[in-house]
Design goal:
Layout lengths: L1 H14 L28 H5 L32
Length: 80
C-alpha cells in the first residue's frame, strides 16, 4: 500500500515539473510570416489565442425539460 502511494506521489511530482518560461520557436525555426497586408509577424500570444469563430458561444438555449418528440415521417421500419 505504501509503495503504491509513493509511486503515485513520484509520478505526480514528475508531472508537475513543467517548464515555466515564455514560448519561443524551436531552434532553427521561425514564426509564421506576417499576414497579407500587415508588416509584422504575430507573436506567440496572438498565435495561441482562440479565434471566436473557432470556438463560438452557444446561442441556442438548451432544453431544460423533457418534451414530447414530434412524429418523424422519415423514421420508417427496416425493410425485410
Amino acid at each position: 500500500m505504501n509503495r503504491k502511494i509513493a509511486v503515485s506521489m513520484l509520478a505526480l511530482a514528475i508531472a508537475a515539473c513543467g517548464q515555466r518560461t515564455d514560448l519561443r520557436p524551436a531552434p532553427g525555426a521561425s514564426l509564421p510570416p506576417p499576414r497579407y497586408g500587415t508588416t509584422r509577424s504575430p507573436g506567440p500570444e496572438e498565435l495561441l489565442a482562440v479565434d471566436p469563430q473557432a470556438a463560438p458561444e452557444r446561442l441556442v438555449e438548451l432544453r431544460r425539460e423533457s418534451e414530447e418528440r414530434e412524429d418523424d415521417p422519415f423514421d420508417l421500419p427496416p425493410e425485410g
